[in-house]
Design goal:
Elements: E1 6-9, H1 14-19, H2 21-31, E2 35-38, H3 46-56, E3 59-64, H4 67-72, H5 74-83, E4 88-91, H6 101-121, E5 124-128, E6 136-137, E7 140-141, H7 142-149, E8 155-160, H8 161-166, H9 171-177, E9 184-187, E10 189-191, E11 198-200, H10 210-218, E12 223-226, H11 235-251
Parallel strand pairs: 1-2, 1-12, 2-3, 3-4, 4-5, 5-8, 8-9, 9-12
Antiparallel strand pairs: 6-7, 10-11
Helix pairs in contact: 6-7, 9-10
Length: about 250
């Protein structure tokens, strides 16, 4: 984990940000995180968000913006992220009607178009995976379409190691096979077996992170981002436990 900063995906603490967005971000900074990845902005305009980041010392590590929202107001998405000093903007998932070969071909083309607009504006586009990209449709997977048909110079991938493992893929092997495609890596752990598998704080489950760290860094990861889709303990406590475990490994 040498010198790779750690951010928190704020979706992890979404119940808290819904009640008090600035206060929750301040608590995340107090835990020791270097940055945050946004999943919504709590109603703050760019000036307010920029001030909050400056106050807390947190850096923007990325922002999840749905593909429909990008298509509806791409200029606004660009302006907001430039206004807060964020250069990485990602598509968090796809609507169900696009989770098929034709949909993935269409999405790949759209990602290239948006990625070109982002590049011209000084931003970078990325795509965040779940497990459904690894479903087989006949003889093809959505993952293979997206990786083959998006331009690496225009579209990065945010590898979610939990969802890759959930789909019975080896996250480290994906990092090696597509080296250079992953500026961001989502860290989350797993407990249970089979259909009982669920999320856990990083370091509290069964995922082997050592090869993930090794291969992430070999291919040039810029941020590790902690995310936990659902927490079994209070969300802020879960976020702190993941961070503390990561720092403990870093100092080992």
């Amino acid at each position: 984990m040498a010198n790779v900063p750690i951010a928190l995906q704020l979706y992890t603490v979404r119940d808290e940000t819904a009640k008090d967005f600035p206060g929750t971000v301040r608590k995340v900074a107090q835990m020791g995180y270097a940055g945050v990845e946004f999943a919504g902005t709590g109603g703050l305009d760019a000036s307010q968000m920029r001030d909050l980041l400056a106050e807390t010392g947190l850096r923007p590590a990325g922002s999840h913006v749905g593909l429909p929202a990008m298509e509806e107001d791409l200029d606004g998405v660009i302006a907001y992220n430039k206004g807060i000093g964020n250069t990485l903007v990602g598509v968090p998932a796809l609507p169900g009607d696009l989770r098929n070969p034709d949909g993935f071909h269409t999405v790949a083309a759209k990602l290239n178009e948006i990625g070109a607009r982002f590049r011209d504006a000084g931003l970078r586009l990325y795509y965040h995976n779940h497990a459904f990209e690894f479903d087989v449709h006949g003889d093809v997977r959505g993952w293979d379409i997206l990786l083959a048909e998006t331009d690496p110079a225009l579209v990065g991938i945010e590898l979610d190691v939990y969802w890759a493992a959930f789909a019975c893929e080896d996250p480290a092997e994906l990092l090696r096979r597509y080296a250079g495609r992953f500026p961001l890596v989502h860290l989350k752990d797993m407990v249970g077996e089979g259909v009982e598998r669920t999320w856990a704080e990083v370091g509290e489950g069964i995922i082997d992170f050592n090869p993930i760290f090794r291969d992430s860094e070999a291919q040039g990861v810029e941020w590790y981002i902690v995310e936990q889709d659902r927490c079994q303990r209070p969300t802020l406590e879960a976020a702190k436990l993941s961070f503390d475990n990561l720092k403990r490994w870093d100092k080992a």
